[in-house]
Amino acid sequence: MGRPPCCDKEGVKKGPWTPEEDIILVSYIQEHGPGNWRAVPTNTGLLRCSKSCRLRWTNYLRPGIKRGNFTDNEEKMIIHLQALLGNRWAAIASYLPQRTDNDIKNYWNTYLKKKLSKIQNQSSSRDDHEEGFSSSQPSMSRGQWERRLQTDIHLAKQALSEALSPEKSTSLTHHDQKPSSSSSDQTLSTTTTYASSTENISRLLKSWMRNPPIKRSGGTTTTTTTTTTTTTTSSTNTTLPNNNVDLSEAFESLFGFESFESSNNNSDFSQSPDQDHESKPNIGNNAHQLPFSLLEKWLFDETVTTTTTQGKEVVLSDMILDENPNFF
DNA sequence: AACATATTCAACCGCAAGAAC
DNA sequence: AGTTCTTGCGGTTGAATATGT
């Protein structure tokens, strides 16, 4: 049976979000900040459940989300972090601050998993003749598995190092400079790689205008009859259905996100402690300032620290696995 | 051109943890 | 201490889109 769904109420809209709804949500969050999601549908008049609002914000609307193709570095990091952390997408996403866990999860499920299994098939067919050893990966001898794990850890370190290195990998580096960085040139650079909420929505708007969701479940026809709580929103709604490009541009100017973003570089809007990243290590922010060993330490402290049978903690990354047979 | 199949990804669902009462 | 509420997470779904026949 289980608990009834939180959104089982009548009158709660489901399905794809419309630009109108996005605007309402963003303008509300701009005013009140993220959090207290329960109050969002009530206060905005959105016919969405709180969960849906939070998800829309965290996955698409919040500033700092990068969309589009994953870079090689990102791919590497995902692969190795997945090897280290498993399907802890939120944890993995914390190392790629500009990507959402949903994005990473989708990318993994639709692309990386297949790619890796292909590679694994190829290598396992080569390894089949080798003598087997019963380990957690049956097709691999224990020594192989240990060595691979070591290699994975090493590569993950390397990938992390590359990704966080300030002089490398422009896209990643820029992303790492989250809005909390104070320098204005960093702000400029972030606007090229980070998408602010405005940019997110304006992009959505543009693509939406190109391909209006005609068949979508009442999406476009659902005019938000509630003349929403925020003045900005209500004025926006009146102009929405007509001028497409102007709309998105008007939207950008409406919220003045350039100033908004920069004014929030040190603010709590995108980095407020009570929101999405509250438990995340926020590596992107200061990665270029932190000694890398510290990051490593944090990474491995959290994820690879394990306990031996004697209850003594062992840091896996520091172990020479082959020399510690008792580990298994 | 029309249909079938595969792929992508936004959104939903249910569960768990922790906060609030 | 127990219950309820809120939020976050990971798995899954299904509509839209791309690709193949």
Q: Any key phrases for this structure?
A:
328 residues; mainly alpha; Arc Repressor Mutant, subunit A; two-stranded antiparallel ribbon; 15 helices; 54% helix; 2% strand; disordered N terminus; disordered C terminus; DNA-binding
**Morphology call:** elongated
The second-level CATH architecture of the domain at 67-119 is: Orthogonal Bundle
Strand content bin: under 5%
The CATH class designation of the domain at 67-119 is Mainly Alpha
Strand order of the largest sheet: 1-2
Distance between the termini: 39 Å
Radius of gyration: 23 Å
The CATH topology of the domain at 67-119 is Arc Repressor Mutant, subunit A
**SSE sequence, one letter per element:** HHHHHHHHHHHHHHHEE
Biggest sheet features: 2 strands, antiparallel
Number of strands: 2
Regions with little confidence, pLDDT below 50 for 5+ residues: 1-5, 130-142, 166-195, 213-328
Count of alpha and pi helical runs: 15
Structural class determined from secondary elements = mainly alpha
Write down the overall mean pLDDT. 58
Region (Disordered): 119-145, 162-196, 208-243, 262-287
Domain Myb-like: 9-61, 62-112
Domain HTH myb-type: 9-65, 66-116
Keywords: DNA-binding, Nucleus, Repeat
Detailed description of the structure:
Residues 119-145, 162-196, 208-243, 262-287 are annotated as: Disordered. Pfam families: Myb_DNA-binding. Residues 9-65, 66-116 form the HTH myb-type domain. The structure is a single chain. This protein is mainly alpha-helical. Among the domains are: 12-63, Homeodomain-like (Arc Repressor Mutant, subunit A), CATH 1.10.10; 67-119, Arc Repressor Mutant, subunit A (Orthogonal Bundle), CATH 1.10.10.60. It contains 15 helices and two strands. The chain has a two-stranded antiparallel sheet with strand order 1-2. A hairpin with a 5-residue loop joins β1 and β2 (313-315). The radius of gyration is 23 Å and the shape is elongated. The structure holds a DNA duplex (21 and 21 nucleotides).
